[in-house]
UniProtKB/TrEMBL annotation:
GO terms for biological process: heme biosynthetic process. Residues 3-156 form the Flavodoxin-like domain. PANTHER family: PROTOPORPHYRINOGEN IX DEHYDROGENASE [MENAQUINONE] (PTHR38030), PROTOPORPHYRINOGEN IX DEHYDROGENASE [QUINONE] (PTHR38030:SF2). InterPro entries: Flavodoxin/NO_synth, Flavodoxin_dom, Flavoprotein-like_sf, Protoporphyrinogen_IX_DH. This is Flavodoxin. It comes from Corallococcus interemptor. Gene3D superfamilies: 3.40.50.360. One of its GO terms (molecular function) is FMN binding. It comes from the Bacteria.
Length: 178
């Protein structure tokens, strides 16, 4: 089963989470790859897709949002999960943080099966005026590899249990006019 993990990431934190997810899924026996949205031509070669976005002012990084809009039709025809990475404290490890309004709306559009918020990372020497100012108080790495690993193993379990019931409908979707 081929799985894509793609992401919108400005400072690299979400990209690294996607890389960890791909490694975990490969260890679980899946053919998983992490790739930036611009490297993905056709979503139809994947059996399942995970899309993640770094949070900026409660919005996903624009590349993640654009990816969903661009591939909306194909995403609707396969199992999709979303994740966000943002909080610069341990709140995401303490409790489940729901998707922001924008991400929730995107989930509804594609019929995403789940969403998880993970902590983010901001380096003390972050580039950019606002990021640098924020880093004075909030620099740190709040990503939690254990939580990320557990979540993506849950995705793997769901995919295994479901088998590939969507394969037929995905084929239909490919034929449908845009
Ligand atoms: C300008 C700016 C705005 C941010 N806004 C939010 C926010 O609204 N919510 C949140 O949880 N984290 C916010 N963060 C934290 C980032 O989401 C966090 O640093 C994340 O790891 C960035 O992802 P990236 O490294 O993949 O770009 C913000 C960070 C910056 C620099």
């Amino acid at each position: 089963m081929r799985i894509l993990i793609t992401y919108g990431s400005k400072l690299g934190g979400t990209r690294e989470i996607a890389g960890l997810m791909a490694r975990v899924l490969r260890d679980e026996g899946f053919d998983a790859e992490a790739a930036p949205p611009e490297a993905v031509d056709d979503v139809r070669v994947y059996d399942a897709v995970i899309v993640g976005g770094g949070l900026y002012a409660n919005h996903w990084h624009h590349r993640a949002r654009r990816f969903v809009h661009h591939h909306l039709h194909e995403l609707r025809g396969r199992p999709v999960w979303f994740f966000s990475s943002g909080p610069l404290d341990d709140s995401a490890s303490q409790e489940r943080i729901p998707p922001t309004a924008q991400v929730r709306a995107l989930m509804e559009q594609v019929g995403a099966r789940g969403h998880e918020t993970f902590g983010g990372r901001l380096e003390s020497d972050a580039r950019g005026f606002i990021a640098h100012a924020m880093a004075r108080e909030h620099a740190g790495d709040w990503r939690d590899p254990g939580r990320i690993t557990r979540w993506v193993r849950g995705v793997a379990l769901e995919l295994r249990e479901a088998g590939r019931p969507w394969a037929g409908s995905a084929a239909l979707h490919q034929e449908a006019p845009r």
